[in-house]
Design a protein that fits this description.
The structure holds two protein chains of two kinds. In chain A, α21 runs parallel beside α24 and α23 packs antiparallel against α24. By secondary structure, chain A is an alpha+beta fold. Chain A is built from 25 helices and 24 strands. In chain A, the strands form four sheets. In chain A, strands 1, 2, 3, 6, 7, 8, 9, 10, 11, 12 and 13 form an eleven-stranded mixed sheet that branches. In chain A, strands 16, 17, 18, 19, 20, 21 and 22 form a seven-stranded mixed sheet that branches. In chain A, strands 15-23-14-24 form a four-stranded antiparallel sheet. By secondary structure, chain B is α+β, with helices and mostly antiparallel strands. Chain B is built from five helices and two strands. The longest helix of chain B has 18 residues. The chains are: A alpha+beta, B alpha+beta. At the A-B interface, α2 of A face α2, α3, β1 and β2 of B.
Amino acid sequence: MTRETNPPRLASNPPRLASWLLARVLPRDAHDSAAGDLDEAFRDEVVPRLGARGARRWYWRQALSLAGAFAASRFHSRELHVSISRNDNMRQDLRDALRTIVRSPAYSAITIAVLALGIGATSAIFSFVDGVLLRPLPYANPDRIVRVWEQPPGMPGGRNAVSTANFLDWQQQNEAFDIMAAAVGSNVTMLNRGEPLQIRGARVSAGYFDIFGTRAALGRTFAPDEDQPGKERVAVITHRLWASTFESDPSIVGRTVVLNREPFTIIGVLPAGSAFDRGYQDLFRPFAPGPNERARNFHWIAVTARLKPDVTVERARAAMQPIAARIARDYPESNKDWGITIERFADISVAPQLRQSLRVLMAAVGMLLLVGCANLANLALARGTAREREVLVRAAIGASRGRIVRQFLTESLLLSSLGGLLGTAVGYGMMRGLQLLLPPLFLPREAVVTIDVRALAFAFVVSMLTGLIFGTVPALQAGRLDLSGSMKGSGRTVTADRFRRRLRDALVVVEVALACTLLVGSGLLMRSFMRMQEVEVARDPATLLTAGLLTPGNRFQSPDEGRVFYRRILERTAALPGVATVALSTAIPMRGWGMGMPLRVPGRGPGEASRPGSAGYKIVSPAYFQTIGLPILRGRAFDASDTAASVPVIVVNKVFADRYFQGVEPIGRHVVIEEVLAGSPQLGPEISWQIVGVVANERVGAPNANDSAGVYVPMEQQPSYGPSIIVRTTGESAVTASALKAAIHEIDPNQPVTDVRTLESIKAESVAPDRLRTWLIVLFGAIAALLAGIGVYGVISYSVAQRTHEIGLRAALGASRGRLMGLVMMKASLLTAIGLIAGLGGAVASTRWLETLLFGIAPRDAISLAGACTILGTVALAAAWIPARRAARVDPLVALRVE
Amino acid sequence: MRRARDLPPLGEFELLVLLAVLQAEGEAYGGTILKELEGRSGRSVSRGALYVTLDRLEAKGYISSRTGDAAPSRGGRPRRYYTVRSTGLALLRHSLDAVHRMSEGLALKLKPS
């Protein structure tokens, strides 16, 4: 048989990708013969011998061998080629640069590694800055979304939750907003296979999701009339909840679930990855206020609204004022002097502390990157000495100064691009790591933290900039080499040397200065964080076990039924082995007051006017102060004699006593506060509480928050449902979470017991972001100090090497070792001192930036300033010590022979 | 023409390739040269190294080439046939002479055991 009659079958064709590769890599004339030979051997010999599959493998091996050999030969054949043409293009520069990089692997590896770390860290921090601060909110028309609050009397710009009646009036009467929606946090208990499961949720107005432009991925969100009483038995869930609890059941829409003992129909699932999947709540029900939820004086609603397309925030503020004035006029007993505050959602969705933390971190990592650049520039300069010959040869055969500068810049840009590529991977890893270290739900739900096109573009720009920064100095230096002088002698000239030395000195000063500023910042934040850690949240928080006892408002028929229930809980848990004391409270330490109440303090005599005010308001069981270890400063704590039938008594904290009774005995005086009706958002008649005690200030907020005025009332006299339980155990984890749960379930098997944890772990979580921020900056500072030390070492070694001759002469003339070392150390000290002074200046100028992040530390804290100088001074002098010793050991005979 | 002893010496692989081109005289294109090399030297030869070496030898003027016929099994690409030029032949002779002279009198030691 002949080839002509039996054309090759398709299966015996060479792999197309391999052929394509050959066509790309091989020169045209070589390709025709080599690829032709390969195809011929493949079809005629190898396919019959190895079969189609084996032959294709064979072909790939051969093709790679060919491609590799030709690529390498092209590379080598230009090894000695030096470009002389002025019109040489970018490709030639790139090829030269690549060759230089490959030829000095150690230098290239160090440079790329430093850049990758620097660019990686910068990109990682940027991904947070971008996600939290820079990106527009992930909603449709983010500029039109606003938050609306009530403004309490005498607090311009104050933000207070809104009462139902006021909200309903605003909703009906305003002309500034398309949609106005209420949201009320409302957790529910769902029976899931017989187990009570607590789900974090909210009740929202029908238009709530439309404000954000969020549509359901499955089913639908609320119809316009579903927030009317009688139609509200529907629920929308997040994708997160659907995937976890409902196991992504595709037929979820229309399914009935029992929430708080009432049936609801699930009508929709929100899209995956939306802001709602990163938020706190998982289940949304319509906010259809019942008859006992329509008070005008109980402020509990968060209001979000969407501006009409042509309405600005200013116009909306102006348009709402008359409405507020009308309500204040019509309902003076609840609304006298109350106003309305409106803010753009984008302006308030990120807490100021987080905003500032991110800015500081970004600045710190940027400074670190600059220190890295200065270091690399120094390294490149040192290497420039070794490359003088190359530069001179180039110049001698006609390369212009611009051409040489371009060549050096190309090289550093190529290095920084490689560093950037690797840095992006490093940055992704760091970003993931930081995300894992942050407590859940710490970032606002709008924040999308990811490495995407924006972050990649950022990394690219940073790479190019670093390449320019650290490449410019050696490029300029190379461009300055004096041809005529250099070719004659040893290849170096006095002017070029002095220029280079000054450049290197200046770079080291910059490094020391930046590192000093960073170290001062690290010191401040670290000392502030340590102060924060020392704050006593409660006595021995590790032995305080806390848990939430969520209770729906319809759980008890009467306040008495609630009293009995909670009494039994206290009795049963107190009887557990390992329990010292037990208390109930509407809020546990560090989790806020729970409630704030307007109040008035009546004057002493009949003639004295009563003083209005407001304060935090906690409802607690008698053992609360004893359990968390809060000392009673005056008077007494609550006890069993304070019952519904006895005189209403109140305990105030120190801030409250100082504010309302400056220097006057508060015990026996009265505070008038409206009653909080248990189980519904309403206020009852005023109660005149008699002060029986003053207690030390409780740590109500984060450890670094200021103390605020607050009062405590006994739960027996002011019933409340759904408190938290706080158990003081006799030793570390003497009472387990399961024992606590079991005890409570003995009384009511359907009572959810949520979030069981020690106060210690709550404290750890609340300071975790501060801890992370502090350690990041300390880490950046430490690396910067190390880099600065390496910089000093490099410069001093270089200077010792340069001055060997001089030093030898001095030694020969009788200079002692000590004097020689002093000579070298003198230079190091001078450079370091200049750097430190500049750095301290920078630190003092920038501490105002840190001020809002500091706790218990002045921004010009002397210890931090001195500490930074000491550390950096020690590092720098230690780095200089090594070359200084070398100088002291110079043998005059050897040194004098050098030249 | 420069004299062979003034030229840079041949590398070992270059020597083998030149010999293989001679062995395949008349039919010496990539495929046959590779077969001669592998068959006679008894070692496996990297295809890439062969073609790069052929290029280099041609660039140095030791061998010349002409394009032959194209066949469908070659994807329509022509074969390239190589012949050793006189410079190459002289250099080859010089190199082999050197080997012979170097190995003179070592017959016993170099005998395959």
